[in-house]
Specification:
385 residues, alpha+beta, DNA polymerase, domain 1, hpI Integrase, Chain A, 3-stranded antiparallel beta sheet, 16 helices
């Protein structure tokens, strides 16, 4: 372990020294990673990797940051030079994210802004976060886009949401010579492949594995993932639930009224809760003094790591190069119920799809009790060994 204000050689999890990487505990008690190395005959001594690359918070990430620094140097950019003369990309983008307003004034876009920040730190900051706008070149934009090669088109478009307008405004004001993010080729959109392609076992077995694994999963995230598999709501919506959204009938059954500020459709949605979820609810869930409390208090970004762990523990058999996420619970729900002979229009209403292209979706009303019966069939299926 590093001693305060003294550089020491970093070690991996097996205790082996890591070449060119050092640790230092700063005045605030936090560990920072430094590097000293020689490249193309030039010596770079005691350079703070964590200051330059905020994601360099572990030995593994520090090694990755060092490789990024070397790549920048080979491209003619010194990542350790003083860029204090103007605002850095990092400061500008994070300010833009912080000031983003929700499209619907009733909505809370906190979790959306957290997602943008996570995306920025993972893909943009390591490449251009330390640079001033005028230093960013086309090759940087292409390098960022290349790092997203294995992601969907919608994921890549986040890059456009974050970066294009910032650079376009500066270009039109003639403060920079060109917009490096202009007309990037994001490729063609690929729809999510079917379960027959992604799974190496029946989808019915996958659903039951996920359910059974969730029953004994990490307690801090068990409620979230139990709701995801049993009431098949979108994770982003679930994460915004408050105590006030959860209610109980006089007969003892429980349900959720998801208000328009948290639903994707922008309308109020109502759905029932199974006993497995009710048993995990806080004891004071109905107390008036706690009604504004968030149901989930852990970091939104950390949820994705827990999700990967859950899927791994469930031992889902996937074909090479494929994956599933919590959103696939919704695909499992409607696909399996269809195979059991359930009316897919009614099952679709349980998912709260709002497809205005189909006349039936505009006029079809499905009473809560009918939807509850569909959910009960789903719960019965999951519980059956």
């Amino acid at each position: 372990m590093a001693r305060k204000n003294k550089l020491e050689i970093a070690t991996d999890k097996n205790g082996n020294n890591i070449k060119n990487i050092y640790t230092l505990i700063n005045a605030s008690g936090h560990t920072e990673y430094y590097t000293s190395f020689m490249l193309d005959g030039i010596s770079y001594q005691k350079k703070n990797l964590t200051k330059r690359y905020p994601t360099a918070t572990t030995p593994t990430k520090a090694i990755a940051a060092l490789e990024s620094a070397k790549t920048d140097i080979r491209n003619g950019i010194n990542p350790f030079e003083d860029n204090s003369k103007g605002e850095k990309v990092r400061d500008i983008v994070l300010k833009q994210i912080k000031e983003k307003k929700p499209k619907n004034k009733a909505k809370d876009n906190t979790h959306y802004k957290r997602s943008l920040e996570l995306f920025y730190y993972n893909y943009i900051d390591p490449i251009i976060g330390h640079l001033r706008l005028e230093k960013v070149q086309r090759k940087h934009a292409l390098q960022i886009l290349g790092s997203l090669e294995d992601n969907t088109k919608s994921f890549k478009l986040i890059l456009n949401v974050l970066m294009f307008k910032i650079f376009e405004d500066e270009f039109r004001a003639r403060r920079i010579d060109t917009n490096p993010f202009y007309e990037l080729d994001y490729g063609t959109h690929k729809p999510k492949e079917g379960f027959d392609t992604r799974l190496n076992e029946p989808m019915e077995d996958v659903a039951k594995k996920l359910y059974k694994t969730t029953l004994d999963f990490n307690l801090s995230h068990r409620l979230l993932f139990m709701m995801s598999i049993m009431v098949v709501r979108r994770i982003g919506e679930l994460f915004q639930l408050k105590f006030s959204h959860i209610n109980q009938y006089s007969d003892g059954s429980w349900y959720v009224i998801a208000t328009e500020d948290i639903t994707k459709t922008g309308i109020i949605e109502k759905y029932p809760l199974p006993k497995e979820v009710v048993e995990l609810l806080p004891e004071n869930i109905l107390d008036s003094e706690y009604q504004n409390e968030q149901l989930f208090r852990f970091a939104y970004s950390g949820m994705f790591l827990k999700q990967s762990k859950l899927i791994k523990e469930a031992d889902i058999k996937l074909n090479d190069g494929h994956k599933i996420t919590s959103h696939d619970n919704r695909y499992l729900f409607i696909s399996i119920l269809a195979s059991l002979g359930i009316d897919t229009d009614v099952a679709d209403r349980c998912l709260s799809h709002n497809n205005k292209k189909h006349i039936k979706q505009i006029y079809l009303e499905t009473p809560f009790e009918n939807r509850k019966k569909i959910f009960e069939k789903w719960w019965e299926f999951l519980r059956t060994a």
